[in-house]
Amino acid sequence: MKKFIVSIDQGTTSSKVVLYNKNFHVIDTLQKEFRQFFPKNGWVEHDPITIFKDVKFLVNKLIKKNNIKCSEILSIGIANQRETTVLWDKLSGRPVYNAIVWQDRRTIPMCEKLINKKLAYKIQKITGLVIDPYFSATKIKWILNNVKKTKKLLKENRLLFGTIDTWLLWNLTEKKSHFTDITNASRTMLYDSKKEEWSKSILKHLQIPHKILPQVKPNVYDFGYTKIFGSAINIGGMAGDQQASAIGHTCFTLGKAKSTYGTGCFLLMNIGNQFKISKNKLLTSVAYKIGDKKMYCYEGSIFVAGSSIQWLRDKLLMFKESKDTDELYSNANKDENVISIPALTGLGAPHWQPQVRGAFFGLTRNTSRNEIVKSILESLGFQTLELVNCMEKDSKIKIKEMRVDGGMTKNDSFVQSLCNILQIKIIKPNNTETTSLGVAYLSGLHSGLIKNVDEISKLWNRKKIYNSKISKSIIKKQFFKWQEAIKLLIKFHS
């Protein structure tokens, strides 16, 4: 009897696999960090071959460690870091260049040219996205322009593009499935989310050939089978990590919002089944498509969240483990007024200033690592507050509660600080690994383990509710000072 679902959660700094039983309870989790490459200022790359090898190793280990057979696995689900771009030779299976990561800023000049050509509104109207190096489109173009072998491979019809979901799927199915799902497609800056097709006009502007692009499928689909772990296992669900997280949080109805604090921070709000362009510099993406039901979301992206804690740990050597930040925050001197803006790879929504870099304000002789950590954690709260304000203006819906997940939410001081700043109820679920849970649900739908999203909603359980402990007037003053610091930083880099 088939008993299990395996979720692959391929993130920006690590790959993770999770084994679920038929009740969607976690049986086991395995994780492996991988190397980040920073060839130049603002450039971020990954080795796609290492990513696939790590995923393959982790799934194999998960199966052997838990003494299960492939025949006992109902389905595999795949969640992935979105926008990260891979081009490869479909005969050799080798990438033509490293994966260019979503955080990468190298295509700023290319984006500026598109904006100068007055294409910003047209692209937003088609894709729901602003023009920014964040998205896959200009990353693809950069590889086509700068890697010589691509011209030969194009002529021989051997070149393929994919985000990490597609790259993993193609390798897992041994070159059979060149697919992506609709949520990942909606983050490329090449996809018409209303018509559900690759935009011919944007492809023409960027001179990107349609033939290298994957076919776009719903989130629940027969994506193919993998036989590399022994006997065949179906792959039945795929979604970009943030949409997978929203599914894991059961954000299936209008106004439901979640925020993930992983490498970056991503706030998503369900806006219903109508495509709506943001007037406040947020993004419009596909939240999910399950069967014939398609929902959209507004999204605000903060490029640096957990990676700022990683930076404090690995580069500034302020602590040995990320969990130490909880105690450091608690011991911070309340009379120190340090403001930080950890824009280590630029500012995302709602500023969209890719050239800006991080800064601290208000350092004194008395400033210690405690105050530095506190300022970083609070800055993520203020950045989230900016996004909440924009989202409420766009949607005309008051966000009364927010569901949170991601590695940073293990820090209780951070979540309470976030709640104080936002002045809304924060809910942490029992299973904070909602990204892997989301694609487990998608695979469960495909395999018939669950029938519909209503059944998924009944499975959600909260662990803890946070309420604000600071007055709104105090937060208002702090937020004003933080916004003034942002203005100064943007002016400095302009």
Percentage of residues in strands: 15-25%
Radius of gyration computed on alpha carbons: 22 Å
Number of helices: 16
Oligomer: single chain
- CATH first level of the domain at 4-240: Alpha Beta
| Morphology call | globular
Helix percentage? 25-40%
Can you count the beta strands?
23
Task: Report what the structure shows.
This protein is an alpha+beta fold and about 500 residues long. It has a domain at about 5-240: Nucleotidyltransferase, domain 5 (2-Layer Sandwich). The protein is built from 16 helices and 23 strands. It has helices spanning about 50-65, 110-115, 120-125, 135-145, 150-155, 165-170, 180-185, 200-205, 240-250, 305-315, 325-330, 370-395, 410-420, 435-445, 455, 470-494; strands at about 5-10, 15-20, 25-35, 45, 75-80, 85-90, 100, 160-165, 180, 190, 195-200, 215, 225, 235-240, 255-260, 265-270, 285-290, 295-300, 340, 360, 400-405, 425-430, 460-465. The strands form seven sheets. It has a seven-stranded mixed sheet with strand order 17-18-16-15-21-22-23, sandwiched between helices. Strands 3-2-1-5-14-13 form a six-stranded mixed sheet. Strands 4-7 form a two-stranded antiparallel sheet. Helix 1 packs across helix 6 and helix 9 (about 240-250) packs across helix 14 (about 435-445). The radius of gyration is 22 Å and the shape is globular. The model has no long low-confidence stretch (mean pLDDT about 95).
